[in-house]
């Protein structure tokens, strides 16, 4: 089948590749070297793309890299077995088995970094960590020993807690209610966590061999490939994404998903993405996590939809051109940001706005009306729209009453008020129940500019 496809005309092959699933294109290009240059030259169209430091998801298929620890025997510590079952750990290991924090790895040319200047580096190979592990180990060992002692003496835990206790007894009083199996599990975990300190102190090698594992997942089907651990995990991620996306024209993506993590995207130098929509798994990505993406966006195309939270940095949220030029801008905010949001609405010309509030906030109708006024303070074209997520039917009715009271020429129907304007347009404000709860909102208020 592949043989005959190579004999096709060049233009026919390009047409077929253009309409082929991206994951199948990756596979064909790797197996048939003769068409790699042609495959790279054909625009890549992706419905859904999600990037993380060690995971890339293209449509319904994900590619995950991890460090897999292979033991020559089946006696594998349970925590390591669990991480192996998940595809390996998402960080590098040093020669003694210590975790190398990802926050200490270099940002390479072409990478997109979401790190902050004040990022905390957590090291697990310090003397303080070792002392903490040793103390914790002793507490669990003493708790298990006490349970065994009580069992041999025919006493209950309640009798032990009711009687006079030594200093050591008081240290374990919160742990003796735990099942013995759980205590033994924690003891084993602490002992395993202490092993790298033992290996380093005696210059020993751990009893396992590390591999870089690539796990390809589609639905319930997983394919595993393992490679020698002769490069860092972040270097492997960089090379893998270069295989997928390197030396291509602008990649066309319908939905670019930001995972909402504080890591680094290890992507090829010069990668450009023409995205239709950008959001996070929850629907809203932190502005600090979305702004760095602008460096790889195709500047010749405007976003159709952009969703982000302005909670961390409200000023940064609205100052970038790709935010201001998005056709529809959806924002998750706090009611304390009312003045900032109103100011932003006054200055920005996006065709459509949507605003949601954090779930623990229940603002009054006045809050929403201020947003509506801010949006209306600048000239809006026909079909411009502002939507607001509401918690209750009562707030929606109060907003409509404010619209009626603040405007002279209005027309009302059920859950709708139309304000007649002097420029041959009208402002139509209405609200309706949502088919299902979305971001803790049960009603949606819509303000739209329509022809009079």
Task: Write up what this structure looks like.
With 452 residues, this protein is α/β, with parallel strands linked by helices. Among the domains are: 1-42, no CATH class; 63-211, no CATH class. It is built from 16 helices and 20 strands. It has helices spanning 2-6, 10-18, 22-31, 36-41, 78-85, 127-153, 157-162, 167-172, 180-201, 233-245, 287-290, 314-317, 321-324, 338-347, 365-376, 393-406; strands spanning 45-51, 55-58, 61-70, 92-93, 99-100, 112-113, 209-218, 221-228, 251-258, 264-265, 273-280, 285-286, 305-309, 328-333, 352-357, 385-390, 410-413, 416-420, 425-438, 441-451. The strands form three sheets. It has a 16-stranded mixed β-sheet that branches. It has a two-stranded antiparallel sheet with strand order 4-5. Strands 6-10 form a two-stranded antiparallel sheet. Strand 14 (328-333), helix 14 (338-347) and strand 15 (352-357) form a beta-alpha-beta unit. Helix 6 (127-153) runs antiparallel to helix 9 (180-201), helix 14 (338-347) packs parallel to helix 15 (365-376) and helix 15 packs across helix 16 (393-406). The longest helix has 27 residues, at 127-153.
Question: Could you name the key traits of this structure?
Answer:
DUF3557, 20 strands, disordered N terminus, alpha/beta, flat, 16 helices, 16-stranded mixed sheet, single chain, about 450 residues
